[in-house]
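Figure 2 data, in text form.
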Amino acid sequence: MVSNPAAMIVLWAAILFIVASAAVLGYAAFRYKQILSVTNFFIKAATVYVLIGEEDAQLAALASGKAANGKDRVRMLDFLKSLEDQFGSHKQWKRQSTRIKELSGAIAAPTAHEAVEAREQLRRKNESYLRALRTGDAAIFLRNYPQLFGTDAEAAVASGEHPDEATEEMLAEARSDKGRGPTT
């Protein structure tokens, strides 16, 4: 036991410093994960909307993009720019290029009112996507459209399959899955 009052103060100050440092680092890690999950959610939602035109995915992308902070929005716009660079020069990707431009314009400089309205529209149209946005669950799009992500997407691209050819089938399949219950 320390009997010196000055040493006791230093000991308590060191303990408080360690606890405060751990709290700050924990919060920073939490915020970093939260920021990445919102950006990742946007990327997945935008991918679904751009490739096949699902309106609910468009609303999900708009809700996450309009509510994002400035730095995150820049990352989102950079992602859309990279897609535009890939699709823009190919005539067969005209619809996708148009969708990219629509998303870019909509999230470029939203107002707070637009962000709230985008979330409300998503709530009215697709509660599952809104729940996924709130929890940062970008995997909802992977579960609904595995053919657009990962090895299924690579195989489709390798075979020359264009998303427009399978759009109606994918949307019908996703809608029938929604009828079976919530996707989480």
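Caption note: The chain has a mean pLDDT of 80.
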